[in-house]
Amino acid sequence: MKTFTVEEVAQHNKPNDLWIIVDGKVFDLTNFVSDHPGGKKVLVKIAGKDATKKFKQFHNDAIMQRVGLPMQIGVIGGAEKKEEAAPKAAPAPAAPAAAATPVISGELVTADQAKFGNGIPYGDPTWYQEWNSPYYNESHIRLRKAIREFADKELMPYCHEWSEAKAIPREVVKKVGQLGFLNAVSGAGTNPSIAHLMPYPLPAGIKPEEFDIFHEFICVDEIARCGSGGLLWALQGGLAIALPPVMNFAPEPIKNKVVPECLAGEKFIALAITEPSAGSDVAGLQTNAVDKGDYFLLNGEKKWITQGAYADYYVVACRTGGAGMGGVSLFLVERAWEGVEARYMDVMGMWGSGTSYITFEDVKVPKTHLIGELNQGFKYIMHNFNHERLGIVMQANRLARVCIEESYAYSLKRKTFGVRLIDHPVIRNKLGHMIRQCEATHAWLENIMYQIKTLPQESQPSRLGGPIALLKAQSTQTFEYCAREAAQIFGGLSYTRGGQGEKVERLYREVRAYAIPGGSEEIMLDLGIRQSMKKVPKSSL
Ligand code: HEM
C-alpha cells in the first residue's frame, strides 16, 4: 500500500479534497464527506490531520472495518512496514520460566500464549489474561485464536446489518460450517459415533479424540463475543438442540442424510416442542400423531421455534400415546411435506434467528421418520436438556462479559464533568458489581464443565441436572444485570440502534430470550433445589 508523509496528508484539507489519518492509516473521505452520518462539518474541521482520537470517540470497530477500510488509500511512512514486519518477525523467545504462566495444567507456556485479546480488564476470561488454569491446554489456545480471527473478520462487523435485516446470509452459515464450528456446538465433536458424518474437520485442526467440552465452550464463547444472540441462534439455536436426538436415536438412513447436511450449514433443522399453551411444561403438549397403518397423521401448532421460519427439517415432539410424559414421541418432519407451514414471528430480539409459528395440518409422516421408539420421546428430549442449558449458560455468560468489555472501554474514553466516566466512583461501582457476578458465573461454569469431562456419563444427569439448572438462572440474571448497567453507562447511545451502543442496545433486548426458554429462571431455581433435596442425608431428615 502507498505511503504518505504527514505533510502530504495535510495538503488535502478541503471539503472537496479531504484526507484524514486514523491509526497511521490514510483515508480519502472526499466522496464520503457529504454522506457522513455524523455530519460534514466535523470532518471538514479535522481535514488533513490525525483524527485517531476523534474517530475512536464516536465510532465502534465495526464502522472502521465495514465503512472506513474501503476508503483507505495508504499509510503514513513506516506504519505499513511495521505492520507487515510483525507476522514475519522471529517468534518471541519463550519467557523465562519464572515469569511464564502455567496455563496448561502444570506446564509452562510462552508469554504470548498466556495473554490474548485486547486487554480490557475482565473483557476476556482470566486465562486470557495471564492467570493460571488447570482446564486448558495448547489446543484450546490454538482454537480461541482461530475462532476469534474468524469472528473479528467475518462476523462482528456485520452483526448490526444482519440484525436489522432480520436475516443472516446463508453463505455465512456455510462458511461457519466449513470452519467446523457447527460440529463443535452440536454435540457432534464430543460424540465419537458421529465423527464419520462430519462434513468438515473440527476447527483449528483439533482431532476428534482430543476434543472436549472446553473446546466446545471456546467456540461458543468466541462467537458470542460478537454480542449478538440473534447471530448465535441463527447459527446454532435450532441445530444444537434438534440435531442431538437425530444423532443419537434416529434410524441410520435419516442420520446419514440429515447430520452431514446440517453440520455443513447447507440445511437447517429446528426443534419443535413448545406450543401456544405448553412451554416448560413439556409433558402437557397437545400436538398429536395418529397411527394410520402406513403412516402417522400429524396435527398441531408449535410456537417460538428457533430457526423454524427457514428450517428444512423439524424434530417434532407430539402425543402418540396417553397423557403425560409417557405418551410423547419424536418425529423428523420435512418442511417440504404437504400440510407443513411456518411463518416468522415478530419478537423482541434474536433477529435473524427465524423465530417461528408452525402449523401441521394432516401431515402424513412415514413410519421410518420416527426417532427412536414410540412414546419414548420425552426421554430423548431430556437426554439433551443439560447440554442445551449449558449452551445457554455459555452464551449468556459471554454476553454479560460483552456488556462489561463494552462499558469498560467506553468509560475509559467518554468524559463527563471534565473527567472520564471511569474516574467517577459510581461508574466503578457499577463495573465492580457486573464483574463480580460474571466471574463467579464463569468459575462455576468451568467447574461444571470439568465434571462433565471427568464424571462417568451415566451419573451426570442425576448429579449435574440440579447445579446446571441453578447455573442457568445465575447466568441469565447476571446477563440481565450487566445489560442494564451497561445501558446506564452508555446512556442515550444504548437507546439508539447502531453506533457505539450497538451491542448493548441489542443485548438489552435479547436478555429475555435467555431468561425464559430452556427452562425459565423460576423453574430452574425450583428444579435445582428439588434435585438437591434428593441428596439430603437421611440423618438430616
Ligand atoms: C474513516 C472515517 C470515518 C468513517 C468511515 C465514519 C463513519 C461514520 C458512521 C458510519 C457513522 C454513523 C454512526 C454509527 O453507526 O456509528 C458516523 C457517525 C459519526 N461520526 Fe464518523 N466516520 C469517520 C470519521 C469521523 C471523524 C474523523 C469524526 C470527528 C471528527 C467523526 C464524527 C462522527 C460523529 C460525531 C458521529 C455521530 C455519532 C453519534 O451518533 O453519536 N467521524 N461516522
TrEMBL record:
Listed GO CC annotations: cytoplasm
Cytochrome b5 heme-binding domain mapped to chain residues: 1-77
A GO molecular-function annotation: metal ion binding
One of the Pfam families matching this protein, by short name: Acyl-CoA_dh_N
Domain of life: Eukaryota
Names of required cofactors: FAD
SMART domains on file: Cyt-b5
GO term, biological process aspect, one: fatty acid beta-oxidation using acyl-CoA dehydrogenase
Gene3D superfamilies assigned to the protein according to its UniProt record, in alphabetical order: Acyl-CoA dehydrogenase/oxidase, N-terminal domain, Butyryl-CoA Dehydrogenase, subunit A, domain 2, Butyryl-CoA Dehydrogenase, subunit A, domain 3, Cytochrome b5-like heme/steroid binding domain
UniProt xrefs under InterPro entries: Acyl-CoA_dehydrogenase (IPR050741), Acyl-CoA_DH_CS (IPR006089), Acyl-CoA_Oxase/DH_mid-dom (IPR006091), Acyl-CoA_Oxase/DH_mid-dom_sf (IPR046373), AcylCo_DH-like_C (IPR036250), AcylCo_DH/oxidase_C (IPR009075), AcylCoA_DH/ox_N (IPR013786), AcylCoA_DH/ox_N_sf (IPR037069)
Keyword field: FAD, Flavoprotein, Heme, Iron, Metal-binding, Oxidoreductase
UniProt family annotation: Belongs to the acyl-CoA dehydrogenase family.
Protein's name in the database: Acyl-CoA dehydrogenase/oxidase
